[in-house]
Each structure stands twice: as C-alpha cells, then as structure tokens.
Amino acid sequence: MHHSARTGHRSTVRATRRLAVVVPLVCALSALVSCTQQEEALTTPCGVVVDGSGSAAAVKEGFDSEAKLKDSLVEFLTGQKCGTVDFAPITRSSRSSSCRQRQVDLDPPHDANTDQKAQRAAARREAALAALAELKCARTQNGSDVWGALARIGETVAGDGPAPKLLVVSDFQQADPEFFLSRQDLSTESRRAKVIDTLVDKRGLPGIKGMDVFPVGLGMQYKAKPSEADDFESFWVEALEGRAKAHVDSRYRR
Predict the structure, then answer these.
(1) Percentage helix, strand, coil, to 5, in the chain?
(2) Nearest-angstrom CA–CA distance, 154 and 42
(3) How far apart are CA 158 and CA 163, in angstroms?
(4) Cα dist. 205→97, 148, 239 in Å?
(5) 3-state secondary structure of 125
(6) pLDDT (tens digit, 9 = 90+) per residue, 143-162?
(7) What are the C-alpha distances in Å from 133 to residues 57, 178, 209, 229?
C-alpha cells in the first residue's frame, strides 16, 4: 500500500507527542531512575575556630570577629566544598573550654526528589548559627589561647578522608595564662624559632598536619605597624607550616 509523504509526517508527529507524554510519566513513577540533577557529593571535613577574646570585640582597637565570621563563613564552606563542619572556641583555655557546638552535616541524606541546593543552603545557615553560638559562649570566657584552639579543632575534625580545611577567625594574639606572645621578640627568624620552641615545649604541637589553615584577621592589631605585622605573620607561618606541618592560605583574609 502506498503512503503519501503527508501520512508519514503525521505518524512522526503523533509518535513525538506520545513520547513527550510518556517521558515525564516515567520520571514521575520510576523509583529506580533519578530525573532531577544530583549535585556533586561534598566530602571535605571542615573546622571553624572563633575568637572570643577582648581584642575580637567590635571596638576601634578590635578586629570584630563576629563581622568577619559573618563575612567569610559561607564563602569558606561553599568554596572548600565542606561536607561537615566542626567548631572550636578561642578562650583563656581553649582546649578544655565548655563552649561546644555539635557537628553540622552540610550534605544531608537525600533522595532523587530532594532539592539539594535548598537543602544545602539550609545546612549552611544552621552552621552559621552554630558558629555564632560558639562565639557568644567564647566571649563569656575571654582569653586568647589560639594554640589550644588549633589543638582542639585538630582533634575534632575527621582526618581519615580528604585533607581538612580550617577557617580561623582570630587576630592570632596568643595570650593565655601561661604564654603571652606580645612579650616575645619576633624580630628575626632565629628569635622566632626560639619562641616557637618555648611554645611547643610547654604545650606540644596541635594535630593539624596536612590540614589547610585559612586565617581571617591575622595580625590586625599591628595594622599601624607594618614591620611588626610582618614579623608576627612570619611567626605564625613558621609555627604552622614549619612545625605543625599544616598549610597556611590567606584567600579569606579580611
């Protein structure tokens, strides 16, 4: 039987229309096939350290840790593809501080119909609230034991997967009951090495080997004294990279 070109065209159109109806139904009914785009898994363990010392207050001489935390946290969590985030405070005795917030899962369990972008945004908001709660508690205990906070976050963040990323919102002015960095001579590399020796002998090394440390506010108390700021920053880079074997990255520095 002879079919005209017009008849063949109509058959093609009907088939296309049937397909347009069937495909959405398959997507809606099939439990085995995901019809929504799934996001890349977030697997990086992250940590956030917040400074509750007097120098972190929102005053002229301070560096306003709350403002810097709000300004950098979400960018950090997103940019580093953090899958989980833990918290540690900087207080007069950071390692034993009672300020504690539970870990936040930034890539919660989901199914094929989950809006992962919205779910992850909600998780990041939860993390921001937890970080602010940690800061609020830290402010009640004052002090500035940065070394102890690094030790604590190193013990808390999981280290059996990708290298952890640590955001440290602090001016890094170590000032706990046993050690005041401001009283030390940091003017040369050899003198800084002696200060690091003293600190390590008293307190040991924080377990952050292989981790990336992102400082926010480092050395801000020396903003009017550039030469002292350079020595201060060199001290921390030498302590963290040279001794603790971590890596310092300043991309979120404010």
Answers:
(1) 45, 15, 40
(2) 20
(3) 9
(4) 18, 9, 9
(5) helix
(6) 899 999 999 999 999 877 89
(7) 15, 27, 28, 30
